[in-house]
Structure formats: C-alpha cells, structure tokens
Specification:
MetI-like fold; flat; transport; MetI-like_sf; cell membrane; transmembrane helix
C-alpha cells in the first residue's frame, strides 16, 4: 500500500468520524423538527424519527401564542432585548478593554484583578444586588436592566477577551497614528477597530446567543406577558394548557432556534477567527 493510499484511507476515516459526531450532535434538532409533525401519542408511544404524515398545522396553531399575544410579539420582544444588548456590550467592552490595554493609570492592576475576580462570581450572587439597584431606579418590567448592564460593561468576559486581543496588536501602530496627528479615540476608531473585527464579531455573537437563550434573567426582571421574550413564551405556552400539545411546542422551538442558526452561519468565519486569534494572542 502506497503512502498516497494510506493518506486517503486516513482522511476517509477522519471524515467518517466527523460525520458520525455531526449526526449525534444534530439528532436532537432533527428529532425536534420531526416531532413538530407528530401527535402526542406518536411522540410518546413510537420510536420512529419520521411522522406518519407531514402537515404544518402545529406551526399555525403554535404561532397564535397565549393570552392574546402571538409569537410575532414574543419574537419582536426577543430582538428588542437581544440586539441593543449585544451592540451596547460590544461598544462598552471595547472602550473598557482599550483603556486597560493601552493606558497606564493609578490602580490599573488592582482594577483589572477586580475585573477578573468578577468572572468567578456566579450569577445567583449578583442577582439580589442588581435587582435592588433596578428596583430603586424603577426600571423593572422592562428591558432597561439589560441595556444598563450592557452600557456599563457588566459582562467582564468580553472585556477580558478584547483586552487580550488588543494586547496582541503592536503598539507601533498607535505610535504611528499619533505621529500622524490622531488622538486616542481616533486611533481606536481608525486603526484598532478594523483589526478588532474578528474579536468584535465573536463578542457580539456570543452575547446575542447568551441573551437570546437566557431564561432566568428575563424571568426576574420582566413581569408583563406582553413583554416576554421567546424563552419565557415557550414556557408560558406549556403552563397555559391543561393538556400540552407537544407538536406546537416543538414547532415554536424550531422557529426559535432559526435566528441563532442563521446568525452563526452568517458570522461563523469571523467568530472562528476571533476565537482562534484571541486565544493565540492572549
């Protein structure tokens, strides 16, 4: 057997393993999709992946929502919550990271250690202080708590990630910009931001995914059904029915997954590049 044949066999084994892993990882999504065409009896009494017949009644009935609120409102609420939060997080984290990575000031090391220490705090510890603050500010039952946390860079993971990325960019670029008459802010906008594009996409995409999938925090801060995002609406749909029609839940779950999947495939090149380069330059 020639070395070329061995190479082809090795590649074939690699692809077979990758395909098997992909099938295993995608199987829950496939099951959820096909379950949206099954009745309750089919779901609980049969092991077949494919339904007896295909009809889209579950998507029509599930979209009607609950309490006179359709999933049009719930999806709109999710996007009103997630998109500003992701954008504000990227902007605030970039500014804070730029300060830590490029400027020297008194107490910088201590402040950076405090920033890192907050990464180890579980969300449950921060919940009561944050709730008290937002209650005092009278911002509960709205998306303002999420916007405020994003504006003040309360997500230290993204700040740390961007600090590591900026530290990997040569300081000579900043010095050249200053020689050309650029100030600190102009240097950030014109020189560093184009180089930060992969890391910014990674931070924005991760924040979008985490906020979109978040169930606990909207449950705490949002009380009105008409302001519920999709994550809360799916649970509310289950609680509103005496007998749960699972195909409706599965249909809406499939639609809820779509924005995340589409966004990932659109941004995956920047996302993977950002994660890889951030890890290398840290």
């Amino acid at each position: 057997m020639t070395s070329k044949s061995k190479k082809y066999i090795k590649e074939a084994y690699s692809y077979i393993i990758l395909i098997l892993v992909a099938v295993i990882l995608c199987y829950p999504l496939l099951w959820m999709f096909f379950a949206s065409f099954k009745t309750n009896s089919e779901i609980f009494s049969e092991i077949n992946l494919f339904p007896r017949e295909f009809n889209f009644n579950a998507y029509r009935d599930g979209w009607k929502g609950v309490a006179n609120n359709t999933f049009t409102r719930f999806f709109s609420n999710s996007f009103l919550l997630v998109i500003p939060t992701a954008l504000l997080t990227v902007i605030s984290s970039t500014l804070v990271a730029y300060g830590f990575a490029r400027f020297e000031f008194k107490g910088k090391r201590i402040m950076f250690l405090v920033l890192l220490s907050t990464l180890m705090l579980p969300n449950s510890i921060l919940l009561i202080p944050r709730y008290s603050i937002f209650l005092t500010l009278n911002t509960l039952d709205s998306f303002s708590p999420f916007y405020l946390m994003a504006v003040f860079a309360c997500y230290p993971f993204f700040t740390y990630m961007l600090v590591q990325f900026i530290r990997g960019i040569p300081r000579e670029l900043d010095e050249s910009a200053r020689m050309d008459g650029c100030g600190s802010f102009r240097t950030l906008i014109s020189i560093l931001l184009p180089l930060l594009k992969p890391a910014l996409f990674s931070a924005g995409l991760l924040q979008f995914l985490w906020t979109y999938n978040d169930y606990f925090n909207p449950l705490i801060y949002v009380n009105s059904v008409k302001k519920f995002p999709v994550s809360l609406a799916l649970r509310l749909t289950m609680d509103a029915e005496t007998v749960i029609i699972w195909k409706n839940i599965m249909a809406m779950s499939c639609l809820a997954v779509l924005p995340v999947v589409i966004l990932f495939f659109l941004c995956q090149r920047y996302f993977i590049e950002g994660i890889a380069t951030t890890g290398l330059k840290g």
